[in-house]
Write a structure and sequence with these properties.
transmembrane; MFS transporter; about 0% strand; mainly alpha; about 475 residues; Growth Hormone, Chain: A; MFS_dom
């Protein structure tokens, strides 16, 4: 992975166009014009158009005053560092929970159903705050909102590591709320600040998110085996969120100074028409989003426990989850490059969803010696379907505002569906006394994911029914 300084060198040309970019930030039309003229990939443009609407709703930054190359380079490096560090925090505090479920249950006496809530609570927060994030940015600005998210996340991680079951759940809810808002705003910041390199920055952002997700899954059990215990392993990620908050502070100061010099003029408001809620295409994208999220969050929550009961040590099961995350990173990086060459993504979406069917059916019915293969299939399915649904936010929308509506709808309803998954999976285990019924259920849902992926991947746009 390139260092932040090397990455910033690749992005220096952004700063040489600072006046144009600042003007673009003040006008949604100009943003779209610049994005259309960029030589970036079609996939990056699709992602950018969906993400950009959140940034358009935020107050426009003032045009940057002329500065030397060193100042511009420092600003670019700082922005890149903040984006990538934030990406590292968006999954690592959650994916590290799955390998620790057994330890948490032994220590607290929680049932499988309640243990599943530790993963469900962040998803409920995603559902609640996905629609609110653009409005928060419009009121306070993206940088201050993101700094506040990191502060809330730091407090939540600290709270959930305290020796109290209510604190465990309360802290988890705070972490999920912070992630939910940051998850929506960061792609918009990329669209606003790096309009000529949306594809590159989105690839780096996604790669960092998945890489740290894999690291978290792999190191959670080894950390829990040390003097830290499982509570310390959960609290370990406070170092990452606190460091990220520190990096956002100078960016917030720069934002405040620019806004003050511009007279704190208001940016373009978030315009909501409600048309997507009446669109069959929007509901197909939303259901595809929800089902692929169900697959992912059940995987990170329960696969380590399933593999452990079938003979693996918890350390080995944790590293299996890391392999799943690494394959997810590969899938999310490569699929947009493939999809950009096609007019319709229906067969790509169906084939990507079929990876879930093969993987979960294998875990259910296949030999234990093939577990790594099945986990790899699930990981590839997670990465490819996730990147496709993010693309669909832009590809199925006719405008940036419509893309924002579609993104908010899909994330809100989709994550609400996903929130049911881990808890229902644990409930089915408790009621049936084994993993056969839960695995049969998720294998059946994989078939529905194939159908929804095919429907959402067809060429077309979101239009009122």
């Amino acid at each position: 992975m390139k260092s932040n300084s090397t990455i910033s060198d690749l992005l220096q040309k952004e700063e040489s166009n600072s006046t144009n970019i600042a003007a673009a930030s003040a006008s949604p039309t100009t943003i779209d014009s610049i994005a259309e003229s960029t030589p970036d990939t079609a996939a990056g443009s699709a992602i950018g158009s969906a993400a950009g609407a959140a940034a358009q709703s935020a107050p426009a930054p003032a045009p940057k005053p002329a500065a030397g190359g060193r100042s511009r380079g420092t600003g670019t490096a700082l922005a890149v560092a903040a984006i990538l560090l934030t990406a590292a925090t968006l999954r690592s505090p959650i994916t590290g929970v799955g390998p620790l479920i057994g330890e948490i249950q032994s220590s607290t006496g929680l049932s499988h159903t309640l243990s599943g809530m530790l993963t469900t609570l962040p998803l409920l927060a995603f559902a609640v705050f996905a629609l609110a994030a653009p409005r928060l940015a419009a009121r306070w600005g993206s940088e201050p909102t993101l700094l506040f998210c990191m502060i809330i996340m730091t407090g939540g991680i600290l709270l959930r590591s305290l020796p109290s079951v209510p604190a465990l759940f309360g802290g988890t809810a705070l972490v999920g709320s912070a992630i939910a808002v940051a998850n929506v705003l960061i792609p918009g910041v990329i669209k606003r600040d790096f309009p000529l390199r949306i594809g590159l920055m989105t690839s780096l952002y996604t790669s960092f998110m998945n890489m740290w997700s894999a690291i978290s899954s792999g190191v959670s059990m080894p950390l829990a085996r040390t003097f830290l215990g499982w509570r310390g392993a959960l609290g370990f990620w406070i170092l990452l969120s606190a460091a990220t908050a520190l990096v956002w502070i100078p960016l917030v100061r720069r934002y405040a100074a620019n806004r003050k010099s511009a007279g704190a003029g208001a940016g373009a408001g978030y315009r909501k028409s409600g048309a997507v809620w009446r669109s069959p295409v929007a509901w197909q994208v939303t259901l595809f989003m929800g089902l692929q999220s169900v697959m992912f969050y059940i995987g990170i929550s329960w696969l380590p426990e399933i593999l452990h009961e079938r003979g693996m040590s918890m350390d080995q099961a944790g590293w299996m989850l890391s392999i799943m995350q690494l394959l997810s990173m590969v899938g999310s990086f490569t699929m947009p490059l493939i999809a950009a060459r096609t007019q319709s993504q229906k067969w790509l979406a169906a084939a990507s969803s079929a990876l879930f069917l093969a993987g979960f059916a294998g875990v259910w019915l296949g030999p234990a010696s093939w577990a790594m293969l099945f986990i790899m299939l699930i990981g590839l399915g997670c990465g490819t379907t996730f990147s496709l649904v993010i693309m669909f936010f832009g590809l199925r929308a006719r405008s940036a505002d419509q893309a924002a509506e579609l993104s908010g709808m899909a994330q809100s309803i989709g994550y609400l569906l996903a929130a049911v998954g881990p808890t229902l999976f644990g409930f089915l285990h408790d009621q049936s006394g084994g993993w056969t019924v839960p695995l049969a259920t998720i294998t059946s849902l994989s078939l529905l994911t194939i159908v929804m992926g095919y429907a959402a991947g067809r060429k077309g746009h979101v239009d009122p029914a």
